[in-house]
Amino acid sequence: MLVQVFMCLIFPVAVFAQAKSDTIPKAEVSTTAHTVKIDGKVISYKATAGTMLLRTNEDQPSALHGFTAYTKDGTTDPRTRPITFVFNGGPGSSSIWLHMGVVGPRRVVVNDPGYTPAAPYTLEDNNASLLDVTDLVMMDPIGTGLSRAIGKSKNKDFWGVDQDIRAISQFIKQYVTENDRWNSPKFLLGESYGTFRNAGVAAYLQSNVGMALNGVIMVSAVFDLRTITFAQGDDISFVMNLPTYSATAWYHNKVPNKPASLDAYLNEARAYAKTEYTTALMEGDGLTGEARDKALIRLSYFTGLSKAYLDKANLRVTEPEFAVELLRDSRQTVGRLDSRFTGITQDMLNQGARFDPQSAAISPGYTALFMDYFYNTLKVNKAYTYHTSAGGREGFTWDWKHAKNGGVGFPTTPNTGVDLAEAMSRNPHLKVLILNGLYDLATPFYGVEYSIDHLELEKEIKANIIMKYFEAGHMMYTHRPSMDLFKKESADFILKMSKR
Which of 193, 222, 340, 407 could cross-link 412 (Cys pair, CB 3.0–4.6 Å)? Predict the structure, then answer.
């Protein structure tokens, strides 16, 4: 790869030392020139990495917002070139996973579905990058990456459902304005909590900014957090997770007389989940005798767990419990983000998983190569610490209230499905591509299907939601065949939705 640094703006470290000065720190970017080969074609592009001064609606400085933008050289008319804003989830995650896993021009090579050995790691040109079809802006929400509050603002002012939606939308508005992209086709691409955010941002941009999006790509989606919280007294999470338990049991050969077709088995699991299983759970303590025994036998078939264990669990097994129980006899825990991955169970008495094997297997490689790439290839000032997560930042807590989930005065589980329904109904041309991992225990695919069926969309609007499935997990792009399919589906979607 040819790399030429043609502009690198360096400001003194002191401008960021706000503790002893009332001076508002300045934004800083490093701009470098590169080439990448995608599908046999060499693409020249510019990378701009650093921070942008985020302002309130009253033009008061509120934050330095970190980002990395990739723009293809030679575009004479921005109206012909799509732009996609990309972020991960958490909440409190930086964008390194999508950035270095599938979307950006460089890709971290990891073992799948096994552990990647320690350094040196391998970074390669990413043939699955979307840079050939769209410019890219990798966004790091406040508290992650280089992003932090300034002036009168505090980081905690941005840490909440609605606060985050406003800040992300404000960044997009400013970036589009400062880079003359108002008339470009515009897309969002978010993963995990980033899909929950996507729904809110799409509605906010349309209603508050006057910006209609061409399309939204959801990677491992969740809109209604009630489907994944396993709240006491609420059975919905157990129903939503069952088909993913079934996929996992099938993959690890824990299903008696294992069906040859995974798709057929999952259709059977879906049907059982929404009928017999839901009915059994609704019975509560009234489920006894022969009816209970029948439910235990059927649930054992669809989960790979023993009838005795399910009886002790009262037919209700949370995700961490399932992860450690399925392969307990072989001292293995299955991954939360990708249940194809397994790790050692140190304590055989664990009731629930103590770690995520998929995360443990790939995170060091992603972190090491991103840091090397960010500071040495993109030439970002090494004086500034890049935070891969806000989880370790002082005072990091999330405000889960969402104004559009008013309810009747009692606390409600946040759900941005209402935002998505609003955005799609008010912009009937908006289409949404949802990419689902069949082995994703973090955001189970059946929960997404359930949420979509409960958006109360008109038939023709609901048809604008496109569902695709991958035989991988939450980060399906660690699986090479799924990464290639990810690229095809996303690129085709962006190209189609960019045409008039």
Answer: 407
Same domain for 156 and 206, yes or no, is yes
186 three-state secondary structure: strand
**Residue 29: CATH number of its domain:** 3.40.50.1820
SS3 285: helix
* Distance between CA atoms of residues 414 and 70, nearest Å: 33
Provide the token pair at 117.
């050995």
Q: Per the structure block, which two tokens stand in for 428?
A: 């009937």
Tokens representing 231? 């709240």
| Residues 438-487: tens digit of each pLDDT | 999 999 999 999 999 999 999 999 999 999 999 999 999 999 999 999 99
| Alpha-helix residue ranges (DSSP H) falling in 179-288 | 193-204, 236-251, 262-272, 278-283
- The residue range of the domain holding 285 is 230-357
Q: Which residue has the tokens 């995520």?
A: 356
* Domain boundary pick from 357, 388, 415: 357
CA distances from 270 to 218, 293, 440 (A): 22, 20, 15
Question: What's the total number of domains in the chain?
Answer: 2
| Amino acid present at 199 | A
Q: How many CB atoms lie within 10 A of CB 458?
A: 12
| Residues 247 and 339 sit within 8 Å (Cβ to Cβ) | yes
| pLDDT per residue as tens digits for the range 62-114 | 999 999 999 999 988 888 899 999 999 999 999 999 999 999 999 999 999 99
Which residues, at least 6 apart from 196, have a Cβ–Cβ distance to it below 8 Å?
89, 221, 222, 223, 225, 414, 416
Based on the number of CB atoms within 10 Å of its own CB, is 5 exposed (0-12), middle (13-18) or buried (19 or more)?
Answer: middle
Closest CA to 82 of 126, 137, 44: 137
Query: What gap in Å lies between CA 459 and CA 469, rounded to an integer?
Result: 22
Segments of 56-207 assigned E as strands: 61-72, 83-87, 106-109, 122-125, 135-140, 148-149, 186-191
Same domain, 298 and 212: no
What separation in angstroms does the CA of 296 have from each of 232, 303, 311, 338? 21, 10, 7, 26
Exposed, middle or buried: residue 434 (CB in 10 Å: 0-12, 13-18, 19+)? Answer: buried
* Cα three-residue angle 228-233-238, rounded to 5 degrees: 40
What is the C-alpha to C-alpha distance for residues 460 and 457, in angstroms, rounded to an integer? 8
Q: Which two tokens stand for residue 18?
A: 């706000």
Specify burial of residue 363 (Cβ count, 10 A radius: 0-12, 13-18, 19+): middle
What whole-number distance in Å separates Cα of residue 138 and Cα of residue 84? 9
Residue that the structure tokens 């059927």 belong to: 298
Global confidence as pTM? 0.94
Tell me the backbone φ, ψ of residue 486, rounded to 5 degrees.
Answer: -55, -50
Cβ atoms of 345 and 311 closer than 8 Å = no
Residues 430 and 349 in one domain: no
Cα 471 from Cα 478, distance rounded (Å): 11
d(CA 317, CA 323): 10
Do 218 and 258 belong together in one domain? no
